[in-house]
Design a protein that fits this description.
Oligomer: heterodimer
Order of helices and strands of chain B: HHHHHHHH
CATH topology of chain B: Methane Monooxygenase Hydroxylase, Chain G, domain 1
Strand content of chain A: 15-25%
Largest sheet of chain A: 7 strands, mixed
Strand order of the largest sheet of chain A: 1-11-10-4-9-8-7
Structural class of chain A: alpha/beta
Number of helices of chain B: 8
Number of helices of chain A: 10
Chain lengths: 282, 255
């Protein structure tokens, strides 16, 4: 595969009439990549939702996927732990590698993959169970332990890593659905962490939360990146600018530009990126 | 603050930066207003520099007084634009070219204000020079040199403001390069005045006043260079301060 073609030198001027079909500008490569995606295409039946997307997710860093509604950023995110497998008409081509292992290989069990690549959704979706059981659930079904003391340990450390333990330690038997929205989202993050994933995918994790709960989640993402590789889809450009080290801009199913977050938000190379992040109509 | 709506007839500046293409029309207007305010401040500072210089060259104490008085207007404009930019930053969280516009404006007005301060120095020295007869006798030659330097700096200021209005990076780079000429001419005047002082120690006071005026011109030249550097940053997103021209030159070659 000719990956070099995907890279256009930062300084190359992009002409306006070429924008629609231009390849990705900026830099898609990471020095230390946890996941490498090369030439990914996603089809829903006849319709192609993702066109030839290649990028790296840098290890222990946060990569933000931004773009207008319907640009394919959520679809792309869901490919990364095979969430799209549940859709019959969905077909995916290209190389999607996790540590040099093709995640769409026949021999790979998607359930095990999803333990390694966890996901947090837009709306907090705790199980209708106790706080304790919500976190312990994954560890139980993956058979991580049968020992009660070990399970307690997993639940406690996961809740601590999610910054929730001190708020719920006296009511672990209470239903998870009784928590506030921000707490529920952190409970879902704890549930994801409990199975010791390597990558965490977040699909607008804070869009249903108030500014304080959002700030807590963002702070948490910043801490989590020390242990996990994170990809986050967000509609809030300020959030992408705040939490991520790398930003990828999607437009109509294509990856238009990718680069360091500080560069994307101060001097984007591509006109479409510029128009989107500055709120101009393109 | 009143917002003048002139989105019907966008300037070259507006078109080049697509300032009128935001989804929020109000944001378009705010950025256009910032730009207009800076241009107005620039015009006033240019006038201050020119009037200040004229007051020295013609020993016009009245004009000098006017320049000193008008500096308050320059200061007030700096405060007004500063505050307006702060409001936009707080409310809009601008990014990319919008962000670069505001950063460059906030820095530009500091330089413009200092240029205004230098113009006041002309005024102060002009009043003192007007009391003596320096211009007629001993000072004739130095003042001719000062006029020469002044013409060069004044042109640079005008060109820089035009480059700013038209977002003309090429013109800005040209002005940056030409600042060396100002420095050379400043050295020439200094040498001449030192000679005058040695020849006629009674005129040291006045000769020093002319030296300070030349120094003020040299400083105005430096501030003008800064303005041009902000233009490059605004348009290209590249930092060419402190003689860091390499990236611009390299990029031009690769195109």
């Amino acid at each position: 595969m000719n990956n070099i073609d995907l890279i256009v030198n930062e300084t190359t001027a992009v002409k306006l009439d070429q924008l629609e079909f231009a390849d990705t500008v900026g830099n898609i490569y990471a020095d230390d990549a946890k996941m490498t995606i090369r030439g990914a295409n996603v089809f829903y039946g006849e319709k192609q939702a993702i066109h030839n997307v290649s990028l790296d997710l840098a290890k222990n860093q946060v990569t933000a996927l931004i773009g207008p509604s319907g640009c394919g950023k959520s679809t792309f995110l869901r490919c990364l732990n095979r969430m799209n497998d549940t859709i019959d008409t969905c077909r995916i081509t290209g190389e999607l590698m996790l540590d040099n292992e093709n995640i769409y290989a026949k021999a790979l069990d998607p359930v095990l993959l999803r333990a390694r690549v966890g996901m947090v959704f837009q709306k907090p979706n705790p199980f209708p169970k106790s706080i304790y059981d919500n976190v312990a659930y994954g560890a139980r079904i993956h058979g991580l332990t049968n020992n009660k003391a070990e399970l307690d340990e997993i639940v406690e450390t996961s809740l601590q890593k999610a910054g929730l333990f001190n708020e719920v330690k006296d009511r672990l038997k209470d239903p998870g659905t009784g928590l506030s929205g921000g707490q529920q989202q952190r409970l879902c993050i704890a549930r994801t962490i409990a199975v010791s994933p390597e990558v965490i995918l977040m699909d607008e994790p804070a869009s249903a939360l108030d500014p304080i709960a959002t700030a807590i989640i963002e702070e948490l993402i910043d801490e989590l990146k020390n242990k996990y590789t994170i990809a986050i889809v967000t509609h809030s450009m300020q959030q992408a600018a705040r939490v991520s080290q790398h930003t990828a801009y999607f437009h109509m199913g294509k990856l238009v530009e990718m680069g360091k977050t500080e560069d994307i938000f101060t001097r984007p190379s591509h006109k479409l990126t510029e128009n989107y992040i500055t709120g101009r109509f393109g | 603050m009143t917002i003048t709506k002139n989105t019907d007839n966008p300037s070259g500046f507006t078109q080049k930066l697509h300032l009128d293409k935001h989804i929020s029309k109000r944001f378009n207007e705010e950025l256009e207003q910032v730009r207009t305010l800076v241009m107005n401040m620039g015009k006033l500072v240019e006038q201050q520099v020119n009037d200040g210089l004229t007051s020295v060259l013609t020993a016009d104490a009245k004009l000098a007084e006017k320049v000193i008085e008008r500096d308050q207007k320059v200061n007030a404009m700096e405060l007004e634009i500063d505050e307006y930019c702060t409001h936009i930053l707080a409310r809009r969280q601008p990014a990319a070219s919008d962000l670069r516009l505001l950063v460059s404006v906030i820095k530009s007005i500091t330089d413009l204000e200092r240029m205004g301060d230098e113009a006041v120095k002309f005024g102060r020295n002009a009043i003192k020079l007007a009391r003596g007869n320096f211009a007629e006798e001993e000072g004739a030659r130095p003042l001719v040199e000062l006029k020469h330097l002044g013409k060069h700096v004044s042109e640079s200021v005008h060109k820089a403001l035009t480059a700013y209005a038209q977002m003309d990076v090429e013109a800005a780079l040209e002005i940056i390069k030409n600042d060396d000429i100002v420095d050379e001419e400043f050295d020439n005047i200094s040498r001449l005045l030192v000679t005058k002082m040695m020849e006629n120690p009674r005129e040291i006071k006045n000769a020093l006043r002319v030296t300070w005026c030349a120094r003020a011109l040299e400083r105005i030249g430096d501030h003008t260079t800064n303005l041009c550097e902000y233009i490059v940053y605004l348009v290209e997103g590249k930092d060419v301060r402190h003689g860091n021209m390499n990236q611009i030159n390299l990029n031009n070659k690769s195109k």
